[in-house]
Amino acid sequence: MKKKLTALLLACLMLATLAACGGTGDPVASTPAGSDSPDDSAGPSGSDSPAEVIEITIPSYKTGENVGAVFFEPQVERFNELYEGQYHITLESVPQDGFNDRLKQLAQQDMLPVLVQGGDVDWMANIAFPNGMAYDLSSWLDETPAVKDLLLDDGLAYCTNEDGTIYSLPLATVRPTGFFYNSAMWNPSEDLSALSMDEFLEVLGDQKIAFSTAENGWVAALFLTALIAAEDGGIEWLQSGVEAKITDFNNDIFINAVTKLQALLQNNAASNSIGAAYADAANAFMSSQAALISNGPWMSADFAEANSANWRNGFNGADVRASLFPGQVGIATTSCFGEWWISASASEEEIELALAFLEFVYSPEELEAYLLAEGGDAPKLDYSDDFRAQQGETQVLADLAADTTEDTVFAPCILDMIPASVANSDFGRLLPSLADGTYSPAEFAEWMTDAAVAATTE
Amino acid sequence: MNAIRRRWALRPRAGRLERANYKWIYLFLLPTVIIFVLFYAVPIVQVFVTSFTRWDGFTDPEFNGLRNYINMFTNSAFLQSLKNLFLWCLVAAVFHVGFGTLVAFVLFYRPRGWKLTRAVFMIPNVISAAAWAMIYRFIFNNDFGVLNTIIRFFDPDFNVQWFYQSPWAFWAVTLTWLFYAVIVTLVVLGDLMNIPSELGEAARLDGATGWQFIRHIQLPLCRGAIGTSVIVSLTARIAMYEQISLTTAGGPGNDTMSLSILLVNGILDYRYGYANAVGVVMFLIGLVILFVVNRLFRMDETDY
Amino acid sequence: MKLKKGLTRTFMYAIEIFVIVISAFPILWVIMSAFKTNGEILTNPLALPTSITLDTFAYLFEAYNFPLYFLNSLLAAGVSTVVSLLFYSMGAYVIAKFKFPGRQLLYILFTITLLVPSHSKTQPIFSLVMQLGLYDSIWGVTFVYLSMGMAMSIFILKAGFMAVPKTLDDAAIVDGASFLRVFWRINLPLAKNALTTAGVLMFLNNWNEYYFASLLTVSDSQRTLPIALAFFTSEFSYNYTQLFSALTVVILPGILLYAVAQEKVQVSVATAGIKG
């Protein structure tokens, strides 16, 4: 009896395995997001009209309450208006949490949406692209210089494979991260980004800095990146992580930078910094308990008058100024994938639409609108006068734009250059121990090395 | 053969009856078996098999013997996770289950407000583990958390970041689940209510005091429920994830590291083979717990 | 003797009060904080809110179809709980009461399902749901939820059935009761406490489930409550009031449902006992 049962179990198991593996060929009853073409549903009566609207549905998290929706939803609307009667894109809102997992599963079922918005970087680089899931954009780019000429050099180099194929459309814009400071508390006369790091720290004196050390230690990681970039060979060291994630931290560059970070955490950190989440750091800045916070340009929206209900302790958003880091360092990863790629299994018509959409998104008007809405810079775009005038209206964005010149050095954020689990978990886990002096900088470096090696050993 | 016969004698079961009922028995098992096969069989086999491979979760796994296990056992975070799990299991078995049982006994004697207590005790289980972890992160917040605000009434200069300082972090994480033992309470209370009331009367006639009655009659008769509670709460410790990832994320240092965090980190790095090796260790620990507790509480024996 | 009784009574009340405080207070504090401004939260965490505005909540209800999400959640969690409770009580019943080949193995297999990491379940479940044509359907989610409470339910139900005196079964069999009848009329009613516990826990788990619901549905019409709520928590949110409001919106529906249902559950359990 026991044998029989085991045999039965095994048989069921094999059946289930077969079902799980062999399912991709079957036609599926429900049409998934993104892959429904109008031809399927139009029926015989609809097929005789030649000028049919090409329609696709794509899942996106930049919808609804998401901060990205403010710009992205109207942008898609503008596209639909421009190509009315020809193309139409419908957005399906899905939560950001779990979005990448969904893409992975859809990809395994060969059901990716026509236009794919991002995805997990490692997954794209190691799995999706090498396995032919993406449409090659290289010939389209060659035929469309209007787009190709705007692309960032680093990004284009990164996205171009050895055989010349390009799957992810490289970025045309860069949003360098610097820091914000409250000029009511601290108003240095120097051009901060032109100073050296040591001069800057001198000018800083005992002003307080808001740090976040919990979660992944985001705000502290930005500052650490700037400190590393200020070391000799620091930028090269950071950039070495583009090719292969950094796993060795036992060097002077890192240890010196961490030593300075530890000093800042102990002497200049706002009182709530140990165990501070991003929310705690932001609140320390917006309640005048810290004069300085490092963060991306999107934070500018928090300093607008409309947000004044969240300010405390005499904080006034109008006092906030922004600057890139000393040594003209802006934190930005330029060697990276862009936001969009096209599924290789899309039909010809769908690809036509997708390409039209990408060209639309990369048109000068749309790029300028994007920069105004979310900040940043398009180095290869000749701005219109109108744009320059409008950019000046938001003080901090104007500050950052003024600092971003041809001499600006872009340093990738350290969190992007180390193994994912170290960035997400180990780094933030140890920061409190660095801040309270339990670990010395050298021990911190050793710990990071151990964690990174453990995360990459196969 | 003799031994088998003795075991049958020790556990008087209607052997004849069962054979006649095989058809029914397997029919009754069928739905659960189908669900198991549909949802769990493939993942379980996959976890075991790929734990001996190098696998990115997509391309073909590549056999690499015990590498994943060797890497795991030489990782200090893993060893600390085992230590933490052991300590948490101890605390759970003694204090968590103990507290839940205590509340069950209190409720059994139906003092005023017992229904309200039972209803309110359930509330922390009504909301998701993630939301509960967030709530505790706010409670233990140094700036505006309830705990430190109250402490500062007595000591205005008090400053502790419960989730981010050694040695507090471990106990702060423990506190997020320690007293929320409503499952234990419900399971034990169910068994208590099932004890035939004649037993109580008989004991009273024999002159047993309340405490003797609890110790010698009620507790032994509840051992199945208590054993079940121990298993449930210990396996919950193995699987515990949100309570850690949303509060300390395993820190400071390795203070609150857990196997579940290591597993998720493995996935983050596309090391599915390694992550599944961690999963296998979790399985094995679960099996050991199941086995030991079953023996300890003699849970396969019925009392009536 | 009297003194001892008084002490026992005091002790019991102390336990009750402790339980109520640790269970209710954190939630009350969160809800209260959702009505305070960012500044009030930081300066005086324990104070009551100065004014109560329902603006946030009014906006949420206008912009989103919460009643629909609520119904979807209720459907997915409710149907799956009822069906799987029946399945698992059948399984747990024979494991608890009978000896048969493979019993230990099945018990072990069923209970270790609790420790199957969700990442390894994702792919098989996704392709299963696809093949059944249930992608982007609340029924697909319901189907997946059938599997969720297996280990916990088998534990609890097995213990529950074992506590039902075997002598009762034997007496019924002597009276000529069938296998089904012994299960349905004697064991199920007498294991009602275990059934309630397992059922409530399964329902709550499914009610709060986020991962598979978000993976398997896309359209607004198929959305469950946890997914709708995920739209409101964003990574770079710093506004404490908003964080507390989001938490409140997440936890409140479950608590309200529980408050309404718990009396009903108690009553139906009581009557089930009478019928049996």
Question: Describe it for me?
Answer:
The complex is a heterotrimer of chains A (458), B (304) and C (276). Chain A folds into two domains: 52-170 and 336-391, 3-Layer(aba) Sandwich (D-Maltodextrin-Binding Protein, domain 2); 178-334 and 412-456, D-Maltodextrin-Binding Protein, domain 2. Chain A is 45% helix and 9% strand. Chain A has 19 helices and ten strands. In chain A, strands 5-6-4-7 form a four-stranded mixed beta sheet. Chain A has a two-stranded parallel sheet with strand order 1-2. Chain A has a two-stranded antiparallel ribbon with strand order 3-9. In chain A, helix 10 packs across helix 12, helix 12 (252-267) packs across helix 19 (441-456) and helix 18 runs antiparallel to helix 19. Chain A is globular and about 70 Å long. The two termini of chain A are 43 Å apart. In chain A, 48% of the residues are buried. Chain B has one domain (76-296): Orthogonal Bundle (MetI-like fold), CATH 1.10.3720.10. Helices cover 71% and strands 1% of the residues of chain B. Chain B contains 15 helices and two strands. Chain B has helices at 2-10, 15-50, 67-73, 76-108, 114-126, 129-139, 146-154, 168-175, 182-194, 197-205, 210-221, 223-239, 242-245, 259-268, 272-296; strands at 53-54, 62-63. Chain B has a two-stranded antiparallel sheet. In chain B, helix 2 (15-50) runs antiparallel to helix 15, helix 4 packs antiparallel against helix 12 and helix 9 packs antiparallel against helix 12. The longest helix of chain B is centred in the first third of the chain and has 36 residues, at 15-50. Chain C has 276 residues and is mainly alpha-helical. Helices cover 76% and strands 0% of the residues of chain C. Chain C has 14 helices and no strands. Mean pLDDT of chain C is 85; it is low at 272-276. At the B-C interface, helix 2, helix 4, helix 5, helix 6 and helix 7 of B face helix 1, helix 4, helix 5, helix 6 and helix 8 of C.
Low-confidence stretches of chain A: 1-49
In the sheet with the most strands of chain A, the strands line up as 5-6-4-7
Average of pLDDT of chain A: 85
The CATH architecture of the largest domain in chain C would be Orthogonal Bundle
CATH class of the largest domain in chain A: Alpha Beta
Fourth-level CATH superfamily of the largest domain in chain C: MetI-like
What is the largest interface, and how many residues per chain? B-C, 95 and 97 residues
Please report the number of helical segments of chain A.
19
Roughly how many Å is the radius of gyration of chain A?
25 Å
Relevant CATH superfamily of the largest domain in chain A: Periplasmic binding protein-like II
* Overall pLDDT of chain C: 85
User: Structurally, how many domains make up the residues of chain A?
Assistant: 2
Number of strands of chain C: 0
What is the CATH topology descriptor of the largest domain in chain C? MetI-like fold
What is the H/E string of chain A? HHEHEHEHHHHEHEHHHHEEEEHHHHEHH
